[in-house]
Amino acid sequence: MLKSTPLTTPLGIVLFGHGSRDPLWHLPMQAVAQRxxxxxxxxxxxxxxxxxxxxxxxxxxxxxxxxxxxxxxxxPVFLGLGKHAREDLPALVSALRLEYPGLAFTLQCAVGEDxxxxxxxxxxxxx
Amino acid sequence: MLKSTPLTTPLGIVLFGHGSRDPLWHLPMQAVAQRxxxxxxxxxxxxxxxxxxxxxxxxxxxxxxxxxxxxxxxxPVFLGLGKHAREDLPALVSALRLEYPGLAFTLQCAVGEDxxxxxxxxxxxxx
Lengths: 127, 127
Fold this sequence. Notes:
2 copies of one chain form a homodimer. Chain A is α/β, with parallel strands linked by helices.
């Protein structure tokens, strides 16, 4: 499906994190969403959460589709590669692929798996 | 205390995360520790955890001091700024400052607060 969806179609990004009852917990993810919008104003961005916080992934997807997104990239904002990133999130994305057959979903690897993130964390620790 | 401790004295870095029963959860933090050692072999590095995983911060500190560290930088590996990063960890570091009056502790801000991390996450999401 991805191959048939041109990269020029409107992109929605979901930053997907665990969620927390603590409002301050959310600030970094909200800051990342703002930074993405500042870097590329054509990209639609939503934060979404596994639990304890709204919206969930389905609600964020609905919102992005309503805003015009024709492809969705889901970014797992997890540093640790636990069950949430390895099992729960892929299952949620699989369900959405069935629900939206015309929408191209890309599920990125968890940010903690990305070599650029490992490098950045090492750089920060040494600074 | 920090001002009286020359920056040439042996440095120990503690990467401090939440902890998990899941062994795979730990891989990114261990990868960061390896990357730090690769970038500067003079730096002593330990991972430590708030719960569910050993060692805790006190044990990691003991180990670094036994290995020769005279100053310790604690890096809170939390993307969300919840109670763990804002309250639990500073309390643990305060206790260690009392226990090791000759040791200079630096508690970095949580990695999720660092603008370089926000930039990196935005970059990864857009890539």
